[in-house]
Amino acid sequence: MSRPIYADPVHDGAADPVVVQRAGTDEWWMFYTNRRADLGGEGAGWIHGSAIGYAVSTDGGRNWDYRGTVEGLDDPADAGLNTHWAPEVIRAGDRYHMYLSYMPGTGEGATEPDRRIVHFTSPDLVAWTRQGVLPRSSHNVIDAAVARTPDGLYRLWYKDEAQGSSTWSLTSPDLYDWTMEGQVLPGSPDAPPHEGPNVFFLSGFWWLIVDEWRGQGVYRSDDAINWRRQGLILAEPGLDPDDRRFARHGDVVTQGDWAALFYFTHPHWAETETPVPVTFEERRTVIHVARLHVEDGRLLATRDIDGVTLDQALGEGAC
């Protein structure tokens, strides 16, 4: 069955997961957007003002222990409640790097959003040091994903909400200094709008998946620069009652010739019938895992499984 592997025990709104192994241990750490699904009222207040929650697994990802929220991620100039979304966390050398989607405040009363991606580093996944704000193609960028590509550079892919919900990229030689590269995937009106890019290498190909709010759009590449569309995965419902909706914003952990895709669902929100989730049940989210593999050059996903077991240490620059 495709039953959930995790639900946030405080606000019940875990979304946008990223999973990384803590070096030298059997611990896998999951960081996620801690949406406040239990917050009443209309509007987007339950999405904005969110912290970054984290949970830890010591049994290869089958069970997760909630550990709290990450401290120290606010800009010192921003007082009060701020918005934290969709962290990307990777390990390179002896440091972990977090690329966080951040918006000052909660967006209430703002004429337009001011969202940016902020870089932090940590020696232990606990204490994070702010490194700075990355270049951006508009005032409204979120959802970072990072990988080291065959040309030796690091690339960071992100969503530009102000430009049709398209995917753009930056390049860096060292994860600190970033240069704008340009648009990677067009969005509306030229192609399906999307968010939550994730890039990984599996079975001889580079893969880029994006959340199209109807399943995960899949693209394949030989060089992680030029991409060809395959189609959708995880658009069909799973068997478990909490997995009957399409898979949303996810993160991939490769494990040799297969990979684990961590994603979330809105189990009780019929999006085609109710454009905006209003009730607690509609806003509630849970995290699942699917198994990915490649067959005849195509990326395939299986969601009706009894979990997966993570046992392969991540290499430098993995994501």
From TrEMBL:
Q: What's the domain of life for this entry?
A: Bacteria
**Membrane-spanning parts:** none
Query: Which PANTHER family does the entry mention?
Result: ARABINAN ENDO-1,5-ALPHA-L-ARABINOSIDASE, ARABINAN ENDO-1,5-ALPHA-L-ARABINOSIDASE A-RELATED
Q: What is this protein called?
A: Glycosyl hydrolases family 43
Q: Which organism is it from?
A: Kaistia soli DSM 19436
